[in-house]
């Protein structure tokens, strides 16, 4: 027996053995070569129970194995008692144990073939299903038979035929619950009429019992292995004709249709292994054979014994040793068959595939035998369904991956307050040992290179790759190989690395504490101790992260015991995370080693005065608590001024919430404080207290270094870091750099806590509507307080774009811009700011100020030259009138107007002009040259609108026709001579960028068609999109037609039908006169060029069709459907590649197509293939996903 424990428990693997004396079975009874069963504890479904998630799975072995701490409590010795059960009228043995000669009866019809035992109240009942098809119930207390029921009474037909032959494979199962009582399920194994009968035991007075019929369910034709009865369902496991496991269940109460529900079990390994031309067959086959959950060690060992045709035993081999033995065996067999001394590479590769496929077939055969199901078990408490097979073992994963001895005891590992299971403990220990080996093998120069790379902000991933290459190049003592070998001993390296990264990451794994506070640590000694602890922790973990990063790079090269998805996760997730952790701990180490600066009092007061403009109310006044002889680090400064108070507040809040008054001693307290303090220092956490503390304490050099170290990789508080860096630049007199930082920080002002606090107490909040405007106002006040008018003008100009819908803010900003431009002597810019001010009163004040200042400065020329009247609209109107009045091909007024708008950056107007130009060309000049100019016009219009802000990237469609109203034209009259009424104003159409793109694509298609067939230029000039698709398909310009269809959201079906028809014509026509065909094929871009053989035009057309089907997928492969339909309608055979691609998506539709065109043979073949796919054979060809189900699932 094997006791299977939940993965949540962690008990030492001490196995206690109980020998059970075997009991002889009657020689006439049915015997099974292999059998299994299962039991569960009553409280196995309770979380707090001692037996939570424990199950006993038994096999036909003589060992009882328990995993417990104390062997003596579960080891028993004794004898087996034998009690004969007799009927009251005669001495008949229940199992027919007495020989026939002694009994004097030639009939053994009452021989039991299936037994079940259940205890009810103070009696134990034994149910026996016998060969005479009768069910007998025995009382162990009274030692008599209480009930006999003929099960053939429940068969609807054929009772006489069944009664004539003794039963051999009937099965009996019980289920009991307090709500429904005791139920029995009997499987009657009758050829072609097998059925399940569900009965309920009913007790009456005087200890009389009867059976009530609940349901009869008919079985499928597979061979039943085992079944289990539950309160509502019957679960069963069969073997089909291909010896594949089939699991199903059915409800015996509410299932009126009698349909069994299929359960997808773990599929068998693939029958064939695909080896690419550039792949090594040996490596591919080894990866498949020794990958998890595919082949068991038993199957590989048996296959190895048969392959070597010997009697050697391999029970003591480890997983790696077995892999080496397989490699040596197959390679020796290959070398022994070689009779020539020289082979070309391709011949040797084919020979490798032959021998490896032979060994793979042996493994596949034995794997199928060992995967045969033996029994089915369901835990009543947890409803867990288990299929018990021959290959089941107590430690399934470890046993299959590494053949670990069952007596081996794995040490426990405490990680993050959680007790890990033994396998994870082993992995963590192996990983740490590998890290230690990496640390010991890393030379000092390489360690320095890693440290220097962190200082220079180089990518840790790339540097670790170079370090690894250096280690591999200088590996004289095979240290790296030893590390690689130890890495292979890790069962689940991805989980182990993830566990280690999670414990290192203070961002994703917040502190798990259950503490109460005994005292506060606020003295300088405590601050020094905390600072040194942070430094030591950071240094240790920096080395750990460095070694782990190198180790992961090594694992990327040699890791072959994990899947490709896990390697991808390692490369894209774990390595970047480890790199960030390395940079983070390097930052903590550097900060804990950086001393704080002593700031002169006058500079300190001046900086504090500037900072008062920001109104950071939570900022504390900087204090100095250290003498010169005992300098203070910035980490200690932060702890004493800010962090200590926050840490103690958090500890107090946790104490109140948890209600835990237990006093903690020092190790617990210092650990808690250190972890919380490191979280406050952690740059990826939302808290920004540490940089803010450095800024308030005027530690600008240290703050710049901190920002420099986090800049390349930290994605949290990006805006806040840019702001404090800008303040550092201001303190150092680098105004332009500061302005750039302030602008970059504006994008995050409404996302980060520090910037929101910065804008939360602004006196100008009443005049600003957005957080970003509040931020700009605060920064502008800071720049004005310092005295930097140029920066004020630049930032205010930028802020105006944020106040598009706020005239009050715009007026204030333009007034501020005007004032500082005028102070700087920028008269022209001041005038522009004056004209832009939307507030008339402020504009009047600024104008008055401008006149006074310019008069005082005697700068009258500038005052006179300012143009106060805007004539731009008049100039534009004149050019537009001339452009619409003259011939398009002889004058270029449109181009002049276009250049005029471009020069003034009025891109939308420029785009409107060029679009109107193109429209007129399309109506009036339908020649090849006209189409070329039209394409250029639409392209220029597109370029203009793409330079405009997306909100304004639209134009008004110019009116159609040439009836533009021009100055000097006579009024129009009707046929009576009266003035004609003004035309009714039509609806204005707005053209967006996507509309212009459509017109451009349509014009480009017309030009392409005209270039291919010049006579079609006149027809193409007026064709719409659908007409153009037909013309393009007819001409053979399929690439252009597809582009046009996608642009106008048209169906691609006409394109595929047209190309299919051309393929049909080519196939029927043959290779005669294909010059025209090659011309239209050359106009379409094929994916690749076939150089290995001569290709005909027909082949290229089919390749083009296949390329389009792959490049343009559709829902339910409707394009595949239309192509197949076209081919079948013309009686052309459908290519295999097309059938394979379509049946993987929609086999039902393909079947309908076959039936519609009377392709009965192809339809039958498709149906048979689909049935095989449902049974697990070739399911990938029909797009069917088969769920893998492990042998035992806990």
From TrEMBL:
Domain NUP160 C-terminal TPR: 992-1187
Keywords: Nucleus, Transport
InterPro entries, per database record: Beta-prop_Nup120_160 (IPR059141), Nucleoporin_Nup160 (IPR021717), NUP160_helical (IPR056547), TPR_NUP160_C (IPR056536), TPR_NUP160_M (IPR056535)
Domain Nucleoporin Nup120/160 beta-propeller: 42-390
Domain NUP160 helical: 421-638
A single GO molecular function term of this UniProt record: structural constituent of nuclear pore
Protein location: Nucleus
Residues annotated as domain NUP160 middle TPR: 682-947
Protein's UniProt name: Nucleoporin 160
UniProt organism field: Cyprinus carpio (Common carp)
């Amino acid at each position: 027996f094997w006791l299977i424990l939940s993965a949540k428990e962690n008990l030492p693997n001490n196995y206690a053995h109980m020998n059970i004396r075997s009991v002889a079975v009657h020689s006439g009874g049915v015997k099974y070569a292999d059998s299994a069963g299962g039991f569960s504890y009553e409280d196995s479904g309770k979380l707090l129970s001692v037996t939570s998630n424990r199950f006993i799975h038994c096999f036909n072995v003589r060992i009882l194995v328990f995993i417990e701490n104390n062997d003596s409590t579960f080891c028993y010795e004794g004898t087996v008692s034998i009690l004969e059960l007799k009927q009251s009228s005669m001495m008949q043995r229940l199992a027919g144990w007495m020989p026939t000669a002694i009994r004097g009866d030639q009939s053994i019809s009452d021989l039991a073939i299936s037994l079940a035992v259940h205890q009810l109240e103070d009696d134990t009942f034994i149910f026996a299903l016998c060969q005479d098809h009768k069910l007998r119930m025995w009382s162990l207390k009274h030692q008599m038979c209480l009930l006999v029921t003929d099960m053939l009474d429940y068969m609807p037909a054929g009772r006489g035929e069944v009664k004539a032959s003794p039963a051999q494979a009937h099965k009996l199962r019980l289920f009991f619950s307090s709500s429904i009582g005791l139920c029995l399920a009997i499987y009657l194994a009758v050829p072609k009429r097998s059925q399940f009968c569900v009965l309920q035991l009913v007790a009456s007075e005087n200890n009389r019992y009867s059976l009530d019929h609940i349901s009869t369910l008919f079985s499928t034709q597979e061979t039943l292995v085992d079944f289990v009865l539950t309160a509502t369902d019957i679960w069963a496991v069969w073997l089909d004709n291909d010896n594949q496991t089939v699991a199903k269940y059915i409800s015996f109460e509410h299932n009126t249709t009698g349909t069994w529900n299929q359960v997808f079990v773990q599929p068998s390994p693939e029958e064939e292994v695909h080896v690419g031309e550039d792949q090594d067959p040996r490596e591919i086959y080894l990866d498949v054979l020794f990958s998890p959950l595919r082949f068991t060690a038993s199957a590989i060992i048996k296959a190895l014994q048969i392959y070597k045709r010997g009697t050697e035993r391999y029970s003591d081999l480890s997983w790696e040793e077995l892999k080496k033995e397989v490699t040596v065996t197959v390679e020796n067999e290959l070398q022994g068959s070689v009779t020539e001394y020289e082979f070309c590479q391709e011949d040797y590769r084919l020979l490798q595939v032959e021998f490896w496929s032979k060994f793979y077939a042996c493994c596949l055969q034995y794997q199928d035998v060992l995967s045969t199901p033996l029994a089915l078990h369901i835990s009543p408490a947890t409803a867990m369904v288990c299929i018990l097979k021959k290959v089941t073992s107590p430690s399934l994963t470890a046993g299959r991956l590494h053949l670990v001895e069952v007596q081996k005891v794995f040490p426990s590992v405490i990680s993050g307050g959680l007790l890990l299971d033994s396998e994870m403990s082993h992995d963590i220990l192996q990983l740490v040992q590998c890290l230690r080996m990496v640390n010991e093998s890393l030379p000092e120069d390489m360690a320095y290179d890693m440290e220097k790379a962190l200082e220079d902000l180089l990518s840790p991933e790339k540097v670790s790759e170079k370090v690894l290459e250096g280690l591999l190049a200088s590996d004289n003592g095979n240290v790296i190989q030893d590390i690689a070998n130890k890495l292979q001993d890790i069962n689940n390296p991805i989980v182990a690395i993830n566990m280690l990264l999670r414990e290192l990451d203070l961002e994703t794994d917040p502190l798990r504490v259950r503490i109460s506070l005994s005292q506060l640590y606020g003295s300088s000694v405590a601050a020094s101790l905390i600072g040194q602890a942070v430094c030591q922790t950071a240094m240790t973990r920096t080395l750990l992260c460095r070694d782990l990063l190198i180790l992961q790079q090594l694992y990327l090269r040699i890791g072959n015991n994990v899947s490709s998805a896990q390697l991808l996760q390692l490369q894209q997730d774990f390595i970047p995370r480890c790199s960030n952790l390395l940079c983070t701990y390097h930052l903590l180490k550097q900060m804990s080693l950086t001393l704080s600066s002593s700031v002169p009092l006058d500079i300190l007061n001046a900086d504090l005065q500037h900072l008062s403009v920001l109104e950071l109310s939570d900022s504390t006044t900087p204090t100095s608590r250290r003498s010169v002889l005992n300098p203070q680090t910035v980490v200690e400064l932060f702890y004493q001024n800010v962090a200590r108070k926050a840490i103690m507040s958090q500890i107090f809040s946790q104490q109140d919430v948890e209600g835990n008054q237990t006093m903690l001693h020092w190790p617990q307290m210092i650990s808690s404080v250190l972890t919380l303090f490191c979280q406050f220092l952690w740059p990826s956490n939302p808290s920004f207290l540490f940089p803010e503390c450095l800024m308030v304490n005027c530690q600008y050099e240290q703050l710049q270094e901190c920002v420099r170290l986090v800049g390349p990789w930290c994605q949290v508080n990006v805006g806040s870091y840019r702001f404090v860096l800008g303040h550092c630049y201001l303190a150092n007199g680098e105004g332009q750099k500061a302005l750039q930082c302030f602008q970059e920080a504006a994008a995050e002002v409404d996302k980060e806590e520090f910037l929101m606090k910065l804008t939360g107490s602004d006196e100008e909040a009443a005049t600003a509507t957005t957080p970003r405007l509040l931020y700009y106002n605060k920064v502008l006040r800071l720049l004005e307080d310092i005295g930097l008018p140029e920066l004020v003008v630049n930032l205010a100009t930028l802020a105006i774009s944020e106040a598009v819908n706020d005239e009050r803010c715009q007026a204030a900003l333009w007034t501020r811009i005007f004032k500082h431009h005028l102070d700087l002597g920028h008269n022209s810019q001041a005038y522009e700011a004056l004209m832009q001010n939307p507030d008339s009163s402020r504009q009047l004040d600024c104008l008055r100020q401008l006149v006074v200042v310019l008069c005082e400065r005697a700068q009258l020329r500038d005052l006179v030259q300012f143009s106060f009247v805007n004539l731009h609209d008049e100039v534009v109107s004149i050019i537009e009138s001339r452009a619409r009045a003259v011939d398009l091909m002889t004058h270029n007024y449109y181009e002049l107007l276009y250049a005029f708008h471009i020069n003034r950056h009025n891109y939308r107007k420029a785009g409107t002009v060029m679009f109107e130009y193109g429209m007129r060309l399309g109506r009036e000049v339908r020649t090849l040259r006209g189409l070329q100019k039209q394409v250029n016009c639409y392209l220029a219009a597109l370029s203009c609108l793409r330079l405009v802000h997306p909100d304004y990237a639209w134009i008004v469609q110019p009116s159609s026709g040439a009836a533009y109203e021009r100055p000097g034209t006579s009024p129009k009259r009707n046929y009576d001579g009266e003035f004609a009424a003004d035309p009714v104003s039509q609806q204005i159409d707005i053209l967006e960028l996507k509309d212009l793109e459509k017109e451009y694509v349509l014009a480009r298609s017309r030009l392409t068609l005209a270039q291919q067939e010049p006579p079609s230029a006149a027809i193409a000039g007026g064709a719409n999109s659908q007409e153009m698709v037909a013309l393009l398909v007819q001409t053979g310009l399929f690439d252009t037609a597809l582009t046009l269809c996608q642009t106008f959201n048209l169906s691609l079906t006409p394109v595929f039908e047209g190309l299919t028809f051309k393929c049909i014509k080519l196939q029927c026509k043959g290779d005669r006169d294909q010059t025209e065909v090659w011309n239209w094929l050359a106009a379409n871009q094929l994916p690749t060029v076939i150089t290995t053989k001569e290709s005909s035009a027909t082949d290229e057309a089919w390749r083009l069709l296949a390329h389009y089907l792959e490049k343009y997928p559709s829902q339910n492969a409707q394009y595949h459907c239309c192509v197949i339909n076209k081919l079948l309608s013309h009686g052309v055979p459908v290519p295999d590649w097309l059938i394979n691609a379509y049946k993987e998506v929609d086999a039902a539709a393909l079947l309908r197509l076959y039936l519609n065109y009377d392709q009965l043979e192809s339809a039958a073949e498709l149906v048979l293939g689909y049935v095989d796919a449902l049974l697990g054979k070739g399911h990938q060809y029909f797009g069917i996903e088969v769920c893998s189900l492990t042998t035992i699932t806990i």
